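Progress against Task 2.4 (sequence-to-structure conversion) is shown through the following example record, which the project officer requested during the mid-term review.
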Amino acid sequence: MLQQTPVARVLPVWGQWLERWPDPAALAAEPAGEAVRAWGRLGYPRRALRLHAAAVALVERHDGVVPADLDALRALPGVGAYTAAAVASFAHGRRHAVVDTNVRRVHARLVAGAAQPAPSLSAAETALAAVLLPADDAAAARWGVAVMELGALVCTARAPRCAACPVADRCAWLLAGSPPAAGPARRAQRWEGTDRQVRGRLLALLRAADGPVGAAELSTAWAEDDQRERCLASLLDDGLVEPAPGDAYALPGWAAGPRAPARAASSARADSSR
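Structure tokens generated for the chain above:
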């Protein structure tokens, strides 16, 4: 959930998920469409499908227990290098470099003397993160959390609180006079009118329904026919939507008809708290 999404947006949805699905087996027992429904407006909803697929894989391969081994974690659907390292380190106390945006910024300023890291993670950054890790497993896990929190709370992107930084006396960027970032300013992503907005509106209609939604009702989500149809086709390709009888569409697992009342009530309770 934290991939490309701020903690403040994730926390309420994460809490609802853990209350409803306290372990992988509970999530795996439900249709994938329920994961998409409970995802709400977090964005990048394919992550919900991957979480569901990962829960199914955990039940099938690991008796419902999240493994500590890095390769086993990487083999789960939707789990890449960062997520695998984070789970192995933070949940199991293993020695792995966990490199997110906050960590990259701390490393860039502290060691490289740059105001901001490069637009994308480089092999050199990954190698530096590994070199900086303490040798002891427990200390390395604490280090990973500490650097991440330092970047999130003190060494922030726009207004770093250098006076409160515990390593200010050895920060290469600060010692160099805090030079501005090199290169063009990074542009914020546009939202209004994008395919992402249209996909979100289509999914919102389907999440609010207790079963398949007709094509005529889906047409109310967006007036521009070509863009709406293109976005609907992309949702079908991604497996976030499936066709249903009678020129209708539904979330994965619910194309055959209405949801079971108990499950619908459970989702209604989750929706009411959003």
